[in-house]
Amino acid sequence: MERRPKNRFMLTALALQLAGCAAGGVPPGGPHLSATECRDLAALRSNAPPTMAQHQSEVAALRKAGYAPSPWNDPYYPEDLQVAQHRVEQWFATECQQSQAG
Known about the structure:
Layout lengths: L2 H21 L11 H11 L6 H13 L14 H23 L1
């Protein structure tokens, strides 16, 4: 009987995680990165000391790119992180450079 609450908690956590994946997909069309994310990602690429807000923008961009950091053992790490980083790099190169030029 003691296992039931643990199992119920685990099932609830998995259900919430799946719901988050379904709801938090990449936005269709349009820019993927906000102006703040572009600014913070550009600042992180410079050699200035990073701020917590800049790191939070980077994590938000990685989440938009499909990366979901998990507190549990992730069998796809680091490949899933690298894919998301590559996607963010592409977005940064196309979207952020255009917004800075204009």
